[in-house]
TrEMBL record, chain A:
This is Sporulation protein YqfC. It comes from Desulforamulus putei DSM 12395. It holds the Pfam family YabP.
UniProtKB/TrEMBL annotation, chain B:
The lineage of its organism: Bacteria, Bacillati, Bacillota, Clostridia, Eubacteriales. Residues 108-179 form the POTRA domain. This is Similar to stage IV sporulation protein. It comes from Desulforamulus putei DSM 12395. InterPro entries: POTRA, YqfD. It is found in: Membrane. Its main location: membrane. Signal peptide: none annotated.
Amino acid sequence: MSLRDLQKKFKKQFSDFFEIPNDVMLDLPKIVLVGNLQVFIENHRGIVEYTTEKIRVKVGEGEVGITGDRLVLRNIKTDEICVEGQIKSLCFLAPGEVW
Amino acid sequence: MVLLRLFSFLLGHVSLVVRGEFLEKFVNMAASRGIYLWDITRLSNDRVRVRVRISDVRPLRHIARATKSCFKIVERRGMPFMINRMKKRKLLAIGGVFFLVTLYFLSSFVWFINVTGNDKLSDAEIKKIAAEAGLRPGVAKWDLDAKQVERNLREKIPSVAWAGVYVKGTRVTIEIAERKLMQEDPHKGEAAHIVAGKAGLIKEVLVLNGQAMVKEGDTVLPGSILISGEIKEEMIPEETNQPLPRGQEPPEPQTVSRFVQAKGIVRARVWYEGYGECRISETLEKLSGQQKTSVRIKFGTKEIIISGPGESPYRYYEEKQTVKSLPRWRNIVIPVELRTVHYLEKIKERVHYGREGAKRIAEQKAMEEVNAKLPEGAKVIERRLEQVNIGREEELVRMKAFVETVEDIGIMKPFKATEEDND
């Protein structure tokens, strides 16, 4: 067990104890899906790949992958992305994983 | 979100097509530098379209250089661009502003006045009074005192119980509530006779006040007195025990008149007569329901046909036209008017009724004529129809209708009491 894992575990326990939201403490993305039409991803680290069928967004550790049809980045700010289109799937990828 | 869009519209935004190898990097860099990008769409493998505010285009240039990509502006939107375009077309802009100012200016006058709620009073009468108080077409709204007009209407016209003046845009509605005036007897208490309104044979006389002048079975002519308002009473001379001097006649019985308003019901039999005729066969004109409309502008003496036929397309027709002309101002008459002419097609039809059918129609016409004459409350006793023969055969059936009714024929007629009242 590395120091990093220990640190992570401590943070988790700390946030659970003080009831601090996990996404703030652990630097996790907050994802809101509106049906299959819209995805909001808060707390992102930038886009890795963007085509009309596939979008990969870097978050904390790892990536969020979105597949669908006619995908459009409705807007992009420093910590928020909004994707619109016909969304088919959304998955979490480990860093370096090939999708 | 809407607010954000409005904001970017006011500031102005452009659509860029970015061409390059590392477009994700371009977007990431822009986002991390706080440049707001939206509507990012992939066009092809190496091109995306993004929207960005004008003020962010310049920093994007550096990012493009750093990511080895280039961009081209394909669309410009928002206020700054519109203003730029307007600068090239100054006259259009001035025209637009002038239009708005004129519209605003003209909308601050009263142009139309509506009167509602009036029953007995005419619109023109009310408008005249309103004009005296300063409400007339063309008056500025800031000069109009609605309360003053209302008060004026109430004071000047006694039968107005309430008046409301509402300004709605350029239209003013005057709402009137009329007082229900009680129909007062104009001859109340005055001496009056009851006279016959029409000729008839008296059937019954019921006197409530006054002196009956006719009795059952009498024939009266219009205007003859039925119940007199003058009641003659005999003065009984004082009884004197002294014998009358010789050679002196007993005094004439003196009468004293008392004047009252005669009241009573006089029923009489009245006859009415009606006449109707119908041809055995005749040509009728009927509207076929077909019509053509033509619209014309008349300018002075010239007439320009805008649509529809210039002449009637039908052989038999009726013409109806409405003319709309511009309102005259002072004594300037604008000689332009819009005329709409409707041509209604007519069909001529020959109808053969036959002697029986013609007779029925003539009867009907005669009865209708009689019925129109009958007053309300008349009791019909007898109806009789009679064919009129003029001695020779003709293509015409003439019918006469007789109706006998019993009705109250009394009409009040006041008179001046000439003699002194005794009571």
